[in-house]
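Field: sequence (string)
Field: structure_tokens (string)

Example rows 1 and 2, in order.
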Amino acid sequence: MGVIVPLLLIGVPLLEIAVFVMIGEHLGAAATVALVVLAAVVGIGLLRAQGLATLGRVQASLDQGRLPVAEVFDGLGLLLAGGLLVIPGFATDIVGLLLFIPAVRRALGRWLGRYLVATGRVRVDVTGRGGGRPPPPGHGPVIDGQYEDLTGEDDDENPPTLPPPAGSGR
């Protein structure tokens, strides 16, 4: 996995340059640049329209008391799609346009979910109790935590007292 990012950082720009040259030879420089600008404008428009719709679905899920996991993934996919369309290049534009198709985002989300569960990077709690295990008998949910006494007093020997009210003369 650590090799993929450097390969993408080198490979994607090289691919984009090659595609620019091929398209530029057929259409000319001005038309090639115009297509890149048009793709960015279309990407921003699609991102705005679909992004607002996704925000509405997130709000509806929250109103129903559901975690909007699918909607959040949709939003991330749209954000990635918009970013890819704004980056100059035709290969990234094609991937970006594909991500604007809801069926593509859903398929990618299912694949990513299965991958994360299979690799153990996430656990799916189907019981609703946390961690997929029921609590021990006679116990409710357990919240672990730590605390530090900032008063400097020992609670057993000297219980904390309230200061006298202002203006009481004491």
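Row 2 begins here:
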Amino acid sequence: MSWQLVSLEARPAQSWRNGGGITRELLAWPQPADWRVRLSVADVQMSGPFSRFDGVERWFVVLEGDGVVLRSDFATHHLTADSEPFRFDGGLTMDCTLVGGPTRDFNLMAPPGLARMERLRGAAQVRGALGALLALYTHGADAQLRLGNASVTVPAYHLAWTLAPAAVLADVKGQDVLWMEVLA
């Protein structure tokens, strides 16, 4: 199985229209202009509303900083760099308040009900379905991904991704790793 590596540092920063931060798009699949799955890292520099993405499910993780408070008409969520991934409807009006200053966050956007994200620390076993888009993002330290006899080292601040040619059962070892599966 071949994994594509994408460096966060090598991706261009795109400024937000509202001036509240920047985004580095790691993957827009299958086409950048007409994506079905989008993986990105955002540097949030000021509090404000999230962009709406109707018909999209979002997964959100704080990677760095003191955290955020996300508020919708229905609930308030306090998220930190220790929190599990937070899933929500991209069509919701969502307001973000920075807790102690800027944050760096990871975003997965995909069709509703087709994606999942796990935050892993230490050693863990992960699964992926035949034909799924599989991705692993590691932040701050390298991670090891082992599938049978093959092993892939994913450097810190990199995304590794592939389309699974078969069902996958793999071992991951790392300090702060995000594992994602999106059914294609």
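free_text_note (row 2): The first strand starts at residue 4 and ends at 7.
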